[in-house]
Amino acid sequence: MAVTMQTNLGEIILNNEVIATVVGGAATDNYGVVGMASRSQIRDNINEILKKENYSRGVIVRQENNIVSVDVYIIVLYGTKISEICRNVQIQVKYNLETMLGFSAEKVNVYVQGVRVIND
Description:
CATH topology: Alpha-Beta Plaits
Largest sheet: 4 strands, mixed
Order of helices and strands: EEHEHEEHE
Mean pLDDT: 85
Helix content: 25-40%
């Protein structure tokens, strides 16, 4: 499903791939986020961190009555405060959607799919 916006010049349709790329980039830029995760790991048989070209598997976009909501599935770093990371992801995703794509998300739901230990 794509997000549709009406302007005085016509209609703008944003594909989910575009939105997923913006949302995935915003989410992974936050400290404590290891990467994006698949929203249905069992069905997709993916238990790894998604690459940029697969961000759409970790983002769900819904539009109902001109209200847009976004679900983001992430993997966080062990030893970080998960609630703070999720709040930062919500803020960053909303900001990037407003500045880059020109629409606001009413809700940004963040789902933590896993915790990873990163060895340096």
